[in-house]
Amino acid sequence: MSIPAPAIASFQPPRRTLMGPGPSDVPQRILDAMARPTIGHLDPAFTTMMEETKTLLRYAFQTENKLTFPVSGPGSVGMESCFVNLVEPGDKVIVCVNGVFGGRMVENVKRTGGVPVIVEDAWGAPVDPAKVEAAFAANPDAKIFAFVHAETSTGALSDAAALAAIARRHGALTIMDCVTSLGGVPVLIDEWGIDAAYSGSQKCLSCTPGISPVTFGERAIAKVKARKTPVQSWFMDLNLVLGYWSGEGKRTYHHTAPINPLYGLHEALVMLAEEGLENAWARHRSMHEKLRDGLEAMGIQFVVDEAARLPQLNSVYIPDGVDDAAARTRLINEFNLEIGAGLGVLAGKIWRIGLMGYSAKQENVDYCLKAVKAVMG
Ligand SMILES: *Cc1c(COP(=O)(O)O)cnc(C)c1O
Q1: 357-373 residue pLDDT tens
Q2: Fewer CB within 10 Å, N or C, the chain?
Q3: How far is the CA of 342 from the centre of ligand 1 (A)?
Q4: Does the beta carbon of 76 lie inside 6 Å of ligand 1?
C-alpha cells in the first residue's frame, strides 16, 4: 500500500457559532482543560477527580443518588444503559412518543425484549398526563414508564413532576431523558421521584460530545439486582461498570475511561456550580425571551405553545418563500452560524435554534437575529 498523503496535515476546524440542537459552543476554558496531559484511568489523581465529578453531577441532577456518574458514550449510550439494565424480557413499558427521541425509546424497549405500550402526542405538544393515566389504567401490569423531558426534535417541554407522580402511583419505575433539559431548565430528580435518568455533555452543559451523565435511584437498583436474566450488554451492565466508577478504594478495570473528555466534563460542571443552577436556568429563559422577541418582530412564528416552550431549543416555522437548505447553507458559509433543520414530520417545515449552555448569551442572540434577517432577504 502506498503511503497516504493527507491533504489535511493537521485539522483546523472553522470557527462556528453553534446554535443548533447540540453540540453547543464549548468555552475555551473547557477546551483548555481537555488539552492537559493524559494520565491513567486508575491514577489516584484521576480517581479523585472522578469522585468530585460524581458530586458535581448530583448537584446538576438535584439528587442524593449515590449511583450518579458519567457513562463513556454519547447520550444514546446513556439511553441504552437505562433500558438494558431496567427492562427485562416480557416487561411492559409505557413509552411516551411526541418526537424523535420518544421513538428511539420504543426501539430500545423492543430490543431489550420489553413490550412497549405507546402513548402518542402530536409533535410540538408536551406529553399529556391524562393519556398516561389512561395507559396505566388499561395496563396495570406496566413495570416501567419512560418519557423525554425536553424533546429536542420539537422544542416541547413536558411536565415531569406530574408524569412521574402518575407512574409512582401505579407502582412503575420512571426513566426520564433529560439530555437537553439538564442545566437549561429545572431537572429535579429527587423532588419529582425519577428512578433513572440520562443526559448528555454537549447540550446545556456545553462540553464536547461523547459523555452521558446518568443517575439511578434505590428502586431502580433493586430492579437491576432482582433481574432473572443477565443484562444483555456487557459494556453497559451496571453491575460491571460500577467496579470502576464506585469501587471505593479498590477500583478495577472495566474499560478505559475517556480521560481528557472527562477533564472537560469536570470543568463544565465546576462552571455550572460557579454560576449556580438557578442562575443558569434564568439565563436560558432571558436569552430565549430576547430571541423570541426578535424573531417575532420579523414575523417568524413558534411551533410550540408558550406554556410548553423550551428556552434552549427554539423551533420556529420557516418563513414562506424561504428555501430551507439554501438559507442554512448561507448561514454556515456567510455567517459561520449553525442552526438545526427539522426532523421527521417537521423536516423542511421548521428550524431549530439552540440557546444551549455557553451558546445562551446576548452576543449569540444578536448575531443570530442579524444572520437570519439577512438570509430571509
Ligand atoms: C441529543 C439527544 C439525545 C442523544 O444524544 P447523543 O449524544 O446525540 O447520542 C437523546 N435525547 C435527546 C432528547 C437529545 O436531545
Answers
A1: 999 999 999 999 999 99
A2: N
A3: 15
A4: yes
